[in-house]
What does this fold into?
Amino acid sequence: QHFCTQLVQAIANNNQDMADRLVFCCLQLLGIADKFGNTEEGSRRVLKSTMNNMLSDILTPDDLIEPCVKILKSHDFLDTIQSILDTLETQKTDELETNYCLRIVSILTIVLGEESSSLLSTKKVKNFERYIMVNNLQHSNSLVREAAVECLGKLGIVVETVRVSHWTNLLEIACDETERTEIRAQAMLALFDWSTCPADPDFVRLVSTQVMEVSNNNVIAAEIAAKLMVTGKAACDSVWLAHLVKLYFEETDNDDDDVEL
It folds into this structure.
C-alpha cells in the first residue's frame, strides 16, 4: 500500500525515473501477495482494498493492471470488478475520457481471459456488453476501437448470445474499407474464433475476398483461410489454396516489418 501511494505521487509529479523503480517494486510485491496474501482474513481485506484502489485510479500504470486483476480472482471476483468498472465510469472526464475507456476495456479483456461462461450471469454479461459497446466500437480514438473489438471477441467466445447479437457488428467492421487495417484484422480474427462448423457464409466470402485481392489484410486473411480449411469450417477450395501458395512465395513490399505468412 505504501509503494502504491508513492507510485501514484511519482506519476502525478511526472517523476518518471522514480515511477519506473516503483513499478518494478510493485510487480515483485504483487507476485508475493498473489502467493501468500490470502492466508489470513485481515490480509485478504487489506489486499482487496489496495487492489481495488489501484484499479480504480487512472494513474496506475498499465503494467500493473493484469497482476492486480488476477490477485482479485479469489476476492468475490466479478462483483469486485463490477464495482471497479462502475467507479471508473463515474470518474470519466472529457479531458481523460479516452484513458478511462481504454482502462475499462483493458480490465474487461483480462477478466474475460480468466472467467468461464458458467460464472457469468445474464446481468453481468449485459453490463460487460454495455461497457464494450457504448461509444467504444465507434470511438474517435483508434486504440479504443481496437481494444473494444478485441474485448468483444473474448466476450463472444464465452457467451453464445453475444456471438448471435454482435456477429454483424464485427462483420461490418471487418468489411469497412475506411477503418484502420489493424482494427479490421482484429475483427476478422474475432469472427474466426466465433465461427461454428461450418463457418458463416458471409464471413467465408469476406476471407475469400481478402485473400484474393492485394490488400493490407491479406496476411491475416491467409492465416484465417488456412485455419478454416484445416479445421473443416470451410471447404478446401483449390483457388484459395493456389492463392495461399502464391502469397507464401510472394515477396512483401513492407519495408518496416518482416511479415511471415
